[in-house]
Design goal:
Layout lengths: L18 H8 L5 E5 L8 H9 L3 E5 L2 E5 L8 E3 L3 H13 L5 E3 L11 H7 L10
Parallel strand pairs: 4-5
Antiparallel strand pairs: 1-3, 2-3
Helix pairs in contact: 2-3
Length: 131
């Protein structure tokens, strides 16, 4: 991944549905980034899970979070709570060193049909296991 820095896009110029994936992207940016989601309160469940993988994130209030510096993510077990957060955790697992297990991944098929096959076609080492 090439170098990039934080950026500022005022509301409504950025789709809130991309907030979880953007948070993941910003864990790989230089500098610190502020995420402000003015539409939804407490929409940061994915950030708690990204911290388990090693992201340096501070939730400052129900609408804002700070993401600090570029972090090396390390595989671990994480829980996806909804489609957007679960896809974000799957992508985080692709970035992380080591094995990442994402619980709740079966729900992703509702919005991202056969994502594991698409990611495999791009060279990802991924397996969907339904328990």
């Amino acid at each position: 991944m090439g170098r990039f820095s934080s950026f500022k896009i005022p509301h409504p110029g950025f789709p809130t549905d991309l907030q979880p994936q953007t948070c993941l992207l910003l864990t790989q940016a230089t500098g610190k980034s502020l995420i402000h989601d003015p539409l939804y309160e407490n929409r940061f469940s994915h950030l708690h899970e990204l911290r388990k993988i090693g992201a340096d994130i501070e939730i400052t209030d129900p609408h804002r979070a700070m993401i600090f510096c570029k972090t090396n993510l390390l595989g671990t077990k994480v829980d996806g709570t909804d489609i957007r957060s679960t896809v974000t955790l799957i992508l985080a697992g692709l970035i992380a060193k080591g094995k990442t297990i994402v619980f709740g991944a079966e729900q992703v098929d509702r919005g991202y049909e056969k994502i594991e096959e698409k990611l495999k076609s791009l060279g990802a080492k991924i397996e969907l296991v339904i328990a």
